[in-house]
Amino acid sequence: GITTVAGKYQNDVQFLPEIYNSCVPILPAKNIYTPINRAVAPSSTKGLGEWYANTCLPCLTGIRPTSFTPQNFWNNTSKISEANIEAIEDAILSKMLDVYDIDTSHLIYDATNFFTFIDTMQNCELPKRGHNKEKRNDLRIVAMSLMVSPDFSIPLIHETYPGNMHDTKEFAVMMKRLKTRCQALTGKRTDVTVIFDRGNNSEDNIELLTSGDCPLHYVGGLKKNQASELWAISKTEYTPLSGDSLAGQSAYRMSVDVYGQKVSAVIVYNPELEKGQMQGILLNREKTAGKLLELQEKLMKRARGEIVKGRKPTCDSVTKAVEDILKVEYMKNIFSYEVIESDNKLYLTFGASCEVLERIREETLGKTALFTDRDDFSNEEIICAYRSAWHVEHAFRQMKDSKHLTVRPIFHWTDTQIRIHMFTCVLAYRLCCLLVKELSAKSIRITIDQLINEMSRIKKVTTFLGDIEHPEKIESFIRGSEIAQAIEAAYDLKQKYS
User: Fold this and answer.
1) How many other CB atoms sit within 10 Å of the CB of residue 474?
2) pLDDT attached to residue 492
3) Closest of 40, 50, 44 to residue 458, by C-alpha
4) Rounded Cα–Cα distance for residues 157 and 92 (Å)
5) Which residue would you say has higher pLDDT here, 212 or 198?
6) Residue 457: which of 498, 488, 497 has the closest Cα?
7) What radius of gyration, in Å, describes the C-alpha atoms of the chain?
């Protein structure tokens, strides 16, 4: 017999028929498979046709693989503007909220950026040099802000913006978009609480959230200098928190004035967080002491005449070198030093204070301060809402994954193409999140990576037997893992595509 592998379940768009059907009238038919490619086997537009040809999609759709050329892709997308992308996302979001029970009472916001290899001289506005969160400040970066739901990290709204724009400015842009879209999408005034970290904490942003015809509630991180009285409270006055996820933790709540508004502030003490922070400080203290000792020995050797080459150190240059070493958090507080000049020679003395370290541990470590306008929230609700920010952080980690749903590399160099690429990546992640949500409702708990990896192992096999001119065709499927078989059974895939 002759056996051929015809395709993989991982490329089955029928997992999400409602979302798929809602996209078809908006996006050109061939382009709907780009997000699927981005989810399961990210490739360039040049590699899209080869990927498509090696899946079951040609058999299911009747579209020839030769249609998937880079030119055809850009012919279909070149006229899509930023406004078109927003309209498409609105249509998808509206359909999602109609079909799926998505929690929109708490929306989690954050922003990140992706480095690119776009030429410095390329004339485009989105890729700019700025502070890259992966330390690639030598490259141009493209930034993305994301608003996700707390259940299954489902992206609701995204924005692609220049890499040199400050996060607080982008926060204002996203909040304005959220305000204008909330009522239009849900058909009613919504009781929405926005979750954000300390980086987006500013007077203008708080004013924007609470003002206008569609005010939004918020839970945010509080900077230490905004409510120093919170940190002055002794931990003996903290109240233990209830709930398994908050076991062993305690908090103190009080009303404080932030940006001219009375808000509820909660300072949380987490002994496990303190333990981790202390380990980091002790490690940094050891490294800092080593660097200071190295500098001290160099000065000693020069004083003894063992080092004569190089520029002669001055009091100012040694002081600057020490200050640079002490830039690591808390090190300037823990260490004291003195640069001594004697007989036209320089010496360095230094020491670390255990008393200062203990004071830092008692007053600062393990503590997180939060603030909110939700006076009706309990301490536990405020804390759990703020900690749900891991959902958007998880989304960014997934989109920076090198295997599935990856945004990089960005093979494009014009603003329009970059926006379409970023939209495609978010759409791919959105579809995967909804699929995980569907499976959870069917009592199948699985991550996106597990889902794609497990389903990629199930393939449809066509076997030809008998006369080579008129063979008998038998179709079968490779048996997958137990969880893959459960997913197959949940959607009745073998029956559907046999």
Assistant:
1) 12
2) 82
3) 40
4) 10
5) 198
6) 488
7) 29
